[in-house]
Design brief:
Layout (H helix, E strand, L loop, with lengths): L11 E2 L9 E2 L7 E2 L2 E2 H5 L1 E4 H6 L20 H18 L3 E5 H4 L6 H19 L5 E6 L18 H20 L4 E4 L5 E2 L7 H21 L5 E4 L9 E2 L4 H10 L6 E6 H6 L4 H11 L2 E5 L18 H13 L8 E3 L10 H28 L1 H9 L13 H11 L10 H9 L3
Parallel strand pairs: 1-2, 5-6, 5-14, 6-7, 7-8, 8-10, 10-12, 12-13, 13-14
Antiparallel strand pairs: 3-4, 9-11
Helix pairs in contact: 3-5, 5-6, 6-7, 10-11, 11-12
Length: 430
């Protein structure tokens, strides 16, 4: 035990009338929503990196947080794990997620990195024996170290490709050992800064081969979780090959991986790509590749990925509507890829940010469930496309369609899309 969260109680559900900030007002883990406990619908996860490894910097400033576990020794790493599992207990979360670099200090070689990761994996395994918190997914950090400045799988140097591939192998091993339910790859620098020195065709082919290797190795070791790719359009690269769900699906189809890999979709990345979160979720669901989500938000006045905790129930509700409509999570869940602000210095701030985010998500999911059970939105959508239920146009050619239009005197008038009425309908539930 540490004393970092000293005097902070375990967070329990007290209902909407509670004024206790250290209590849930909407998140009752045992409440039944669409035939499942709310905890099992939401499957909350804490992001190890933002909560315990981030020093409080921003693009114009360095470290603001002073954490007792900040350091480059294994003792520091184990203290960080002790604090993390204390927070998991306080929040009662069922899952956490990590990168390798979050949990072990950087070594002087691949062998040292591997040994340190294995030591921390064993330490996590011991802590998980007495904790309800399990591993939602693991991943490898292939973007922070200077070796990855030109990418990992798409790096022009084959030695960097090799180092990255070997690192993913060790991270898959760790995820498998800890019973992780997914393994995530996201290309923090899998893109380019200038086309003047970039071979797009070669880099894309290398990325496809890399992902195929990951899928093959997961099968080899008997990993039964999902392999997920997390789309991100840019920042820090000018353009990244995993730009959005549509781009990634095209990539998967090209390399025959569309039935092997699903998506981990982040709200902030969707916004950076010029989409809404619900658009990316709906598209992934329609393509059969919706896996898991990173729940956060961006600041609408900032041009980068600010990774803030969600605060808007209406925004969260329309996102969970798409998740529930697709059947809900299986191996995936709601990972808070979110961080407190760099001026939020106190231990209480870290706890309360998660409490607020969990409550917003709970309220949003319950609203989404109510919308789906009411069925009004789907009925109105079906009415809009009802003409296609009896149409044979898709089985005809252009000449036959032209003859039909002329013979039947077809001269259609436009019909209302009813956007405002639909928005009003959604607002009845949120």
């Amino acid at each position: 035990m540490t004393d970092f969260f000293k005097d902070i109680p375990e967070i329990v559900y007290e209902g909407t009338d509670s004024s206790n900030e250290f209590a849930f007002r909407h998140y009752d883990p045992d409440a039944q929503v669409m035939g499942k406990r709310l905890e099992d619908q939401l499957r909350f996860s804490v992001a190890y990196w933002h909560s315990f490894a981030w020093p409080g910097g921003d693009p114009f400033g360095g470290q603001t947080f002073d954490r007792p576990w900040f350091g480059d020794t294994m003792d520091h790493a184990k203290m960080k794990a002790d604090v993390a599992f204390e927070m998991f207990r306080i929040l009662g979360v069922p899952f956490f997620c990590f990168h390798d670099a979050d949990v072990r200090p950087e070594g002087d070689s691949f062998a040292e990195n591997t040994a340190r990761l294995q030591e921390m994996t064993d330490y996590f395994a011991q802590k998980m024996e007495t904790s309800k918190t399990k591993l939602l997914w693991g991943t490898a950090n292939m973007f922070t170290h200077r070796r990855y400045m030109a990418g990992a799988a798409t790096n022009p140097d084959p030695d960097v490709f090799a180092f990255a591939a070997a690192t993913v192998k060790t991270c898959l091993d760790a995820t498998h050992q800890l019973g992780g339910q997914n393994y995530v790859l996201w290309g923090g620098r899998e893109g380019y800064e200038t086309l003047l020195n970039t071979d797009l065709k070669k880099e894309r082919e290398h990325a496809g081969r890399f992902l195929t290797m990951v899928v093959d190795y997961a099968k080899k070791i008997g990993f039964e979780g999902a392999i997920l790719v997390e789309p991100k359009p840019q920042e820090p690269s000018k353009h990244q090959y995993d730009y959005d769900v549509g781009t990634v699906y095209s990539f998967l189809k090209d390399f025959g991986l569309e039935n092997e890999v699903k998506m981990n979709i982040e709200q902030g990345h969707a916004i950076l790509a010029g989409h809404s979160f619900e658009h990316e979720l709906a598209l992934a669901a329609s393509l059969g590749i919706l896996g898991s989500i990173d729940m956060n938000r961006n600041d609408y006045q900032s041009g980068w990925d600010t990774d803030q905790f969600p605060v808007s129930v209406p925004e969260v509700a329309v996102a969970y509507y798409e998740v529930l409509k697709a059947g809900g999570f299986t191996t995936g869940g709601t990972n808070f890829d979110a961080k407190i602000r760099r001026q939020s210095l106190d231990p209480e701030d870290l706890i309360l940010a998660h409490v607020g985010g969990m409550d917003v998500c709970a309220a949003g999911l319950k609203a989404a469930a109510a919308m789906l059970e009411d069925g009004g939105l789907e009925r109105m959508r079906d009415e809009r496309y009802a003409g296609w239920d009896t149409s044979d146009l898709l089985g005809m050619d252009l000449a036959a369609i032209a003859e039909k239009v002329e013979r039947e005197g077809i001269n259609p008038e436009p019909r209302s899309g009813r956007q405002e009425r639909l928005e009003n309908w959604v607002n009845r539930f949120v």
